[in-house]
Amino acid sequence: MGNSEDEKQARDEEVRRRIKIFMKNFEEGNIQIDASIFPKIEESLLKIRVDTNGEIDLATVDGRVRVMALAITAMQDRQDMKKSMSLAEIQNLYFEIIEKNFCHFYEVMIKKGLNPHSVGMSLIQQQDSVEEIMRGMDGFLEMINEFWDQTGEIAQAHVEDMSNSKLKGIFGGDLFPDQSSNIASKCGIYIDTIVLPDPFLRSHLIFSTSSREDKVYYLVKHAMNILQYKKMACLEIEQPIVVVLPDFTVLREDEMKFVQKISEADSLNHANKVFGRKFNSSAELMEYAKKLGTIDAVIGAIKDETRVLFDAEWDVDIRGQIEGAMDGREAKLLGTRHPGILVAAQSIGRMTVSNELMIKASQLKGTPIIDAPTSWKYFVWKMEYDSNGVEQKTGLKDLHVVRGLQGLGDNQMEWLGNVPPDALIEMRKQGAIDEIRNTLTEGIGEIVRINPASFNKSRDKILENIIVAFADHKQKIRELREKKWKFAGKDIGSWFVTGSMAVTAACTGMPVWGIAAFIANQVMDAPKLKDIPKSFKKLVEEDEKNKRSPVGMLFDVSKQEKK
User: Fold this and answer.
1) Fewer CB atoms inside 10 Å of the end CB: C or N, the chain?
2) Which residue from 451, 419, 422 is spatially nearest to 547, judged by alpha carbons?
């Protein structure tokens, strides 16, 4: 009983706090209220009385005031939270933790011209180093978790509130960008801010299931890789080049379960196409897969070989794809070399990753950025399934489009995709070649804002605008070559790369989770509001109101260009 009284008192005190904040802002003219939505709000405020203790008498506070007070307080609390720490402060503290633990290895890597992979491989050959790193590993990972527990929401609020006129690229599709090429060097000219995931949180499954040597390898490789982004992440400028954020689906168990639930529809849709038969649940899919105990049995059951993809860079047939998976990371993580299970699990895992990326991009009001061809292929398939499902419901057609920006007659294009970090920083500080940096923003914005009903009429025009922008971009590239500019002592002519750049979009007019449930053809029920994690509920409302179209971008440098 005592606890119940304490809880009631705490709730009442919180309501009073909200009302005081609301009344103060209202009196100071800091808020404008639409009279058509909340008529007579001033009259409601005048009815409020105080009790004999000078506290607000909650019995005199009506529902209109309570709702407005809740909204205004949430906004003020958010602003106060952001004022408590700047984004640059959070990024500096984060990198300080990593440097304190790995600066020696990083200095050796830079001095000897090594890469993160080679440093990790070198260390696991030395048993003493493995033992030393393992002793401190749990403490380091716990420190990272605690850090993001304290600062993650603040950092995310800062990124969410960045200017919507700028293009935010939300990296996804893998644990972290490929260590052989800096993602900011690759697309930092075209993307205003690139949001990277904390790789240590994302590797929780590896750290919990792998051998000691693999744990040490990934820990060191991630540390070496992410330290390469320190200068770009810690710049105190309005629109940072790089930001590192935690994946809350790792920190919040309810979020991950929710993402997995809504991803089941896409997973089953993909498996249906692979095997040419309908599955009603993930359990049914896995039971079927267990019966396919040999590669021949799996191949015999597959109806669409083009949708069985473990690595787009393996130049092998379907048998080679499955054999590679049985000897690769997939088998290690799942703890099995069973070919049927590996193929089925690929559908589930890849579609979950794609949905997680789409939700994260929606939260941060950004565009998914992918630089791994395999992840890109699954992301495009996920978009295809979304559009197909909505087309069945609405009767609209051609709601999905994929277009390589390099043009129809050429599968390669040239862009500034090898920009040294120091040069990129200097260019940002100077505001140099902004006309090139703004090439993508308008076209992407057009796709995001388009209405599903007019998408099939407008999509060719929208994408034509992007193609035209890149034709203009090619002209600017030629002009830049002639100028022979230098930044940070480097000739701009050495930064050009060739490769594939593409956009995919599915105009659905539905929130991510609404799409996923619908596509399952009523195998699953759409999530009810009560089933959606609290942290996603605001996003549901925004998606319903704005009808944002999912968009993704690929930046893939040709293999011969990679170092």
Assistant:
1) N
2) 451
